[in-house]
Amino acid sequence: MHSEFSDLHRGKPIVTYDGHTIGTVQEVRSDRATVERTDDHDSLTDEIKEMLGWDDEDQTHELRREDVDRYEDEKIHIRRS
User: Fold this and answer.
1) Which domains does the chain have, with CATH numbers?
2) What is the pTM of this model?
3) Fewer CB atoms inside 10 Å of the end CB: C or N, the chain?
């Protein structure tokens, strides 16, 4: 699913394919969202960080719409790597 991000996505948690929350959407632009990482670094594995292009130095990162598997009412699921 490659839908555009909208203001409705602001504040929603970003979760992995196995249900772990890795961040929350802070800002949105049509094909990207700015995500603030959660403090639960155990669920943000190296594999997920590499797939998303995230590093350990920043607390906020960009999420591209092509990284999204599906949007639900209460959360956004990222695709499996």
Assistant:
1) 7-78 (2.30.30)
2) 0.86
3) N
